[in-house]
Specification:
It contains five helices and seven strands, in the order E-H-H-H-E-E-E-H-E-H-E-E. It is an alpha+beta fold and 165 residues long. The chain has a single domain, classed as 3-Layer(aba) Sandwich (Aminopeptidase).
Length: 165
């Protein structure tokens, strides 16, 4: 498996993968508590145009995991050089590639980029009811730093942090 910076010609593949992952997550877990209209609106965030804004930007990062020439995971986020806090906005791994260290490798690469940019901390948010996401962040060295009750769309969220020093 190869972890590398996303390229412009990856945007269609990472868009398709992101939409596939989000749809699967919604069907298997989130449909019981996450409003359908919010989910459908969120899918627009995974268009090639939106994801392309993370590629090659000084204040953003976009990493992909490639296996056998196929993109099987991605991590995108923002680098705030002023505050020193990087934000992991989205991480996803193809369902058939989960539990193989892909997410950890992507997060480690994002941490490396964030540290090079002068950041001291990487944060990530997830819905508190997504036990698998919470467990993944903890396995990848994050600590649960804040619980946000009835936060976005009246859903409980958790903020995770991983210090980079």
């Amino acid at each position: 498996m190869l972890i590398r910076d996303a390229r412009r010609d990856d945007t269609t593949s990472i868009s398709e993968l992101s939409i596939l992952i989000r749809k699967k997550s919604y069907q298997e877990m989130e449909k019981l508590f996450y409003p359908r209209e919010a989910f459908e609106g969120e899918l627009l965030l995974y268009s090639p145009e939106v994801l392309g804004k993370y590629v090659g930007s000084r204040d953003k990062f976009a990493k992909v995991a490639e296996d056998g020439g196929r993109i099987v995971g991605l991590a995108i986020g923002k680098l705030d050089r002023d505050t020193g806090v990087a934000d992991l906005g989205w991480i996803g791994v193809a369902p058939e590639n989960r539990h193989r260290g892909v997410a950890k490798a992507l997060i480690d690469a994002a941490c490396s980029d964030a540290k090079k940019a002068g950041c001291h901390k990487l944060i990530a948010y997830t819905m508190a009811r997504l036990d698998s996401a919470c467990a993944m962040y903890e396995r990848c060295g994050f600590v649960r730093e804040a619980e946000m009750k009835r936060h976005w769309m009246k859903i409980d969220f958790v903020m995770y942090s991983r210090w980079l020093e």
